[in-house]
Amino acid sequence: xxxxxxxxxxxxxxxxxxxxxxxxxxxxxxxxxxxxxxxxxxxxxxxxxxxxxxxxxxxxxxxxxxxxxxxxxxxxxxxxxxxxxxxxxxxxxxxxxxxxxxxxxxxxxxxxxxxxxxxxxxxxxxxxxxxxxxxxxxxxxxxxxxxxxxxxxxxxxxxxxxxxxxxxxxxxxxxxxxxxxxxxxxxxxxxxxxxxxxxxxxxxxxxxxxxxxxxxxxxxxxxxxxxxxxxxxxxxxxxxxxxxxxxxxxxxxxxxxxxxxxxxxxxxxxxxxxxxxxxxxxxxxxxxxxxxxxxxxxxxxxxxxxxxxxxxxxxxxxxxxxxxxxxxxxxxxxxxxxxxxxxxxxxxxxxxxxxxxxxxxxxxxxxxxxxxxxxxxxxxxxxxxxxxxxxxxxxxxxxxxxxxxxxxxxxxxxxxxxxxxxxxxxxxxxxxxxxxxxxxxxxxxxxxxxxxxxxxxxxxxxxxxxxxxxxxxxxxxxxxxxxxxxxxxxxxxxxxxxxxxxxxxxxxxxxxxxxxxxxxxxxxxxxxxxxxxxxxxxxxxxxxxxxxxxxxxxxxxxxxxxxxxxxxxxxxxxxxxxxxxxxxxxxxxxxxxxxxxxxxxxxxxxxxxxxxxxxxxxxxxxxxxxxxxxxxxxxxxxxxxxxxxxxxxxxxxxxxxxxxxxxxxxxxxx
Amino acid sequence: xxxxxxxxxxxxxxxxxxxxxxxxxxxxxxxxxxxxxxxxxxxxxxxxxxxxxxxxxxxxxxxxxxxxxxxxxxxxxxxxxxxxxxxxxxxxxxxxxxxxxxxxxxxxxxxxxxxxxxxxxxxxxxxxxxxxxxxxxxxxxxxxxxxxxxxxxxxxxxxxxxxxxxxxxxxxxxxxxxxxxxxxxxxxxxxxxxxxxxxxxxxxxxxxxxxxxxxxxxxxxxxxxxxxxxxxxxxxxxxxxxxxxxxxxxxxxxxxxxxxxxxxxxxxxxxxxxxxxxxxxxxxxxxxxxxxxxxxxxxxxxxxxxxxxxxxxxxxxxxxxxxxxxxxxxxxxxxxxxxxxxxxxxxxxxxxxxxxxxxxxxxxxxxxxxxxxxxxxxxxxxxxxxxxxxxxxxxxxxxxxxxxxxxxxxxxxxxxxxxxxxxxxxxxxxxxxxxxxxxxxxxxxxxxxxxxxxxxxxxxxxxxxxxxxxxxxxxxxxxxxxxxxxxxxxxxxxxxxxxxxxxxxxxxxxxxxxxxxxxxxxxxxxxxxxxxxxxxxxxxxxxxxxxxxxxxxxxxxxxxxxxxxxx
Lengths: 670, 567
Hints:
The structure holds two protein chains of two kinds.
Chain A: H1 10-21, H2 25-28, H3 32-53, H4 59-95, E1 102-107, E2 110-115, E3 124-127, E4 137-147, H5 149-152, E5 158-161, E6 168-169, E7 174-184, H6 192-200, H7 209-238, H8 245-255, H9 258-277, E8 280-282, H10 285-291, E9 296-300, E10 306-317, H11 323-334, H12 340-352, E11 364-366, E12 374-379, E13 382-387, H13 389-396, H14 402-413, E14 417-423, E15 426-437, H15 441-451, E16 454-458, H16 463-473, E17 477-479, H17 484-496, E18 501-505, H18 511-516, E19 519-523, H19 528-533, E20 536-538, H20 546-583, H21 601-625, H22 634-666
Parallel strand pairs in A: 9-16, 9-18, 16-17, 18-19, 19-20
Antiparallel strand pairs in A: 1-2, 1-3, 3-7, 4-5, 4-6, 4-7, 8-20, 10-15, 11-12, 12-13, 13-14, 14-15
Helix pairs in contact in A: 1-4, 3-4, 3-8, 4-6, 4-8, 4-9, 4-21, 7-8, 8-20, 8-21, 9-20, 9-21, 10-20, 11-12, 20-21, 20-22, 21-22
Chain B: H1 3-32, H2 37-46, H3 56-79, H4 96-107, H5 117-120, H6 123-153, H7 163-188, E1 198-202, E2 208-212, H8 216-225, H9 246-271, H10 274-300, H11 332-345, H12 360-372, H13 381-400, E3 406-407, E4 410-411, H14 414-440, H15 442-445, H16 452-468, H17 482-512, H18 528-562
Antiparallel strand pairs in B: 1-2, 3-4
Helix pairs in contact in B: 1-7, 1-9, 3-4, 3-6, 3-17, 4-6, 4-17, 6-7, 6-8, 6-13, 6-17, 7-8, 8-9, 9-10, 9-11, 10-11, 10-12, 10-18, 11-12, 12-16, 12-18, 13-14, 13-17, 13-18, 14-16, 14-17, 16-17, 16-18
């Protein structure tokens, strides 16, 4: 699902309508800070009305304040519902991919055509070319190429086949070629797509642990400020100052952390939404949040770090043999070798010759057998062979020349695989085969390291090869000669040390480890078992996508932290606006506290409350986009964010309130 | 400021800086080494098993019950003073409300004095109720801190140690020996230490005078070392018997700071993270130093209201310049500033001058010290409070760097935040509500002798002092009325135990957690940037909470002074 220009203007209308509905106190009490604002708004509205009825002088002021208080709540509601609506729009576009599909259900009395939505778990159905997959299932028989662009946005078709790690099909995708017999793995309403939709719609959204902790802190601060404001009338009375309830409510609303409380739900939803845009479906917000905490990332070598096959990178001639001669021998020995290693040797040797030399007549293929462990071709010029060093030693009947032996161990130590090439019993040289690391990984692992995430490569290779590849890819550690069950042990061991472990996987044998890992990214192309065990699924089936998820998790926490700091820091300026306004009439000597030189007490209070309201919509884009994460190390990040959101949080409202005050004065509104 | 002021400040602070790390190291040994034979004997006598580990709930229960017992004993001694021996002057018993207030005051390490010691207490009461409870309060505070620290040092355990073992170790190995040795120096400098209760003297002018004496030196050392602060005499450290010479003034300053300033180093040692201890020490030092600077500035300031009178407030060879009202000329401004700032920061509450006569900015500093109450704060509990602030600051920091926050390898989650926030709530609620109540009710207002912001400040100060378990008072507010005696008595108990229990629970919760290994992504809490964050967080929350009363009290008085307005 690539994100489109979502919803356009309509989404804003729906969000506005929703924010009015959300004024219902029963739903608002979930957010205690905004609920407090609502109580304040009700009170000031009451003051305004009763003052108007009794011809008190405060009616206009109270109505202005209550107007802005209501607006504050609406802005906060708007932030939350905008995030939700964006999710809904995403879900909607998913849902359209599932028009009413018919399915061929296998029953006792043959195949019946039924509505796709009526399929239940364990039902069997058939698919053939051109069919749209009606629901999630696991292939029992057959293989097919499937177009998954409706889900992943990736137009290249993928192969799905029975008995392997690519046996899952997803509802909404289209079979391009092949016949499949599929077992349904999810009841209606529980399919992957359904869960995805309900998740992005926020229907199953629960507060994540960290969000709960932050809410507790915000409620604590709100309580403190409640006592601060509630005791002011007593202090004022002693000091012979009359205090206006409207101003007190305005002060309370300014002090309690409305900015972060208003944006908190939106930040959480936007986090899941950002993962979604990266084509990762998180099963819960907690999973995304947890990704930010990962200490250790387990990566399979094959398929994740390397392309999964070894390639020839170098030819080393034996003493007295020219490179051209060796290249020709390699070419002849590989002409019939259809393995990736053989193909790459052929390509390399052809590139090393000045144009491929003509192939001699009368070539006879010698195929690789487990017994001989070598392959090649018999030609009139002689028998060309290539194979591992020990196989070749027994073929030529004596040990390899010392120069070649040295070269063999050098290649092995560097993590490569040496192949010895011979004509008849003469050793001509070596082919250096090597795992090729996917481009760009070095940079990504470097980024991970700076984030504080250690990487461990899991491979079945011997330790020598593993070390060399790990070094080349910039991996911190490796686990060599690993059997699938070892991965699970490794995860448990690291978790016992208090580390949070992430991994990505696709196979059924990955499922237990995926379930054990703290953050587990399953590949969409993988088996149903793997997808069930993971707490996220990558629709692009890119194992390194986990890095992006980690960044999204970090961004989520950072956005919360930054806006909380900003929100609390804002209070300083609001105090300097409202407190002098309250006390200055009785004690002109306190005028020095009016550092912003606000025009009148009324304009000061009004400006503060307007700033407090407007800052919420002003920060909605930041809340939805997230604070930018850069892997600088924790201290540098904190310093930057403290400067921007702490110091900035203190200074910005001074400017903002002064500016609003100037506008109010210019418009003669005070 | 004169050169000479600088020398006094630098020498005093230098001594603290020199001693604090050593004492911290010694205290760590006290808690980390096996029991001594003497201690084992005491455990056998008391029939306690020092190795029985207690969960936070059990620890808290033993702490509360033992303190309740000591409180009741202290109350009975004071209430029944007239019936008890050791009372040659036949002083009457204290009224029940003052006895309640005093017992509460001393068991909570507050040492708020709603009585005048020399006029109302027998020597037995001074020793059995006052000096004894002074020991209890300080020992309890240290025990609580050790339990809280164990929350950070332990992994996967649900217990926090044994209260009695923690209580007695500190008492026997640190508190008692230090008190004993230092008391001898006080005696050498002229402080009385006797079981006699009065001597008669003929003054220079001829008439005879009765001078009250008693076991002053022993009380003096425990008063300062235990951050208690309650004096033998009503004039406290300004009384020439309690504080006879500039040497004793410096000594008392050192005694107040000796254990309290060593606690960050103690913490660093206990947790095996000396850098962390140092970072917290810097936090304390910055707050303390800023306070000292403002107090010194404020007291060197000349009072503009006195300008028209023919008074010289300028510094000369013969007098310190500035606000000398209420100060001992033998001590001068800088000694007084050092003494009071330390007393207020370490919540000792001892004074060597009249707090009521200080300039409003100095009072503002004292109020802020009591609101924060943790730089370094009272014996043990102050530093435990600082750890709570650190937990909250770490939470914010963790969020800002994109990681679930952790402090010393322990994850800070919603339970920890809930408990820390609960502990944080107590001070604002108690101080704000009780002050508001007292400036509204006639019973509260009738005790105010000074009109305007000064009177307000006195009430605010009284409740700040009660909650912080500081115990110092501005005179000018009549606090021996039943209203204040009972209200402040209750406040001292709540202010002591309400924030402490959530901290024990916090420690209990942390002790159970796994310790996370440090990675490059871990946010380090022993760096200058964390010091800045912690200072900012503490300052911001305290400022936001107390801004309104601070404006209507000290700031209003200060600005009025500058404008020549009096009330």
